[in-house]
Amino acid sequence: MTQSSASSSPLLLTPFKLQSLTLPNRVVVSPMCMYSAQNGLANDFHLVHLGQFALGGVGLIISEATAVSPEGRISPEDLGLWDDAQILPLGRVTDFVHAQGALIGVQLAHAGRKASTHAPWRGRGVVPVEQGGWTVIGPDANPYNELYPVPVAMSTDDIARVTADFAAAARRAEVAGFDLVEIHAAHGYLLHQFLSPLANTRTDAYGGSFDNRVRLLLEVVRAVRTNWPGHKPLMVRLSATDWAPGGWDEQQTVELARRLRYEGVDALDLSSGGLTPEQRIEVRPAYQAPFAALVRREAPELGVMTVGMIDTPQLAEDLLQQGVADLIALARPLLGDPHWVWKAAAELGAEPPRPDVYGRGTR
């Protein structure tokens, strides 16, 4: 991790070096599920949706949760990288993004017990088999709630297969032209399920103690790092806390962060929640920023990204100036305004990073 040198520009709009990548600024498109693929294949929607952010001047785009196996999809409409046929459609996206001088990463994911569910606007809970659903797996046989599918507890063979699926997806991500891989271990999906004692009641080597609960994620990280070029960054998204008694929490996140650095992880994307319906989240502007600050202080070798209710350019700039995080991830603000970075530059007194073809839009 290397920070930019001092500059008169706002920190939000200064470069940041992460391994071999030099991000032109600190604004990152947070992974956002769009539920718009068929058979895991990207299409024109994904080209236009992700391409607009490249034109809008963000520092880095991270694509939505991209399943490493068919059973790992959140919904039947999720993107995938479990098959070689999925490489070329995603390559169209990365080619376009790179042609605009932008950078793009992919979030590799497995939904575990939260798989085979409806897209939010199509319904709630489990998708029946007759409507395209499937049998789901998890650390144990306990569902997320009564509306979600009951998972089959994973065997050690299942665990080895999932680990291999992540590794194979990382190889495909390299062929597809991605600049960065993020492993999704947050929001109650499979790797987070193994981390939290609220979702992992196993009594074997993958459950019980902290060392056992983090074992699967560490194995996945090693497998991905081995199959992802060493000069390209590897990021992990974590839920820093379950917001529930007896669950995963900040101190466990700090300890895991230290271990992930030694496994070749370059940066952490720190979110929270999603593991249990019993969560009680204390929502406010930048409510997850303290988690980033804690990890940045306790594991300073790692790059740190914060996300969540950071709606204004000034708030984003303040977080960077205070040393809370290195990168700012945005989701809803960029959905509402793909040119958010242009507005941020204007508000913070910097030159907007517009492509030449959009220069006439300046008044």
UniProtKB/TrEMBL annotation:
Keywords: Flavoprotein, FMN, NADP, Oxidoreductase. CDD domains: OYE_YqiM_FMN (cd02932). The keyword NADP applies. It holds the Pfam family Oxidored_FMN. Signal peptide: none annotated. The keyword NADP applies. InterPro entries: Aldolase_TIM, OxRdtase_FMN_N, YqjM-like. Its cofactor is FMN. Residues 12-348 form the NADH:flavin oxidoreductase/NADH oxidase N-terminal domain. This is NADH:flavin oxidoreductase/NADH oxidase. It comes from Deinococcus hohokamensis. The lineage of its organism: Bacteria, Thermotogati, Deinococcota, Deinococci, Deinococcales.
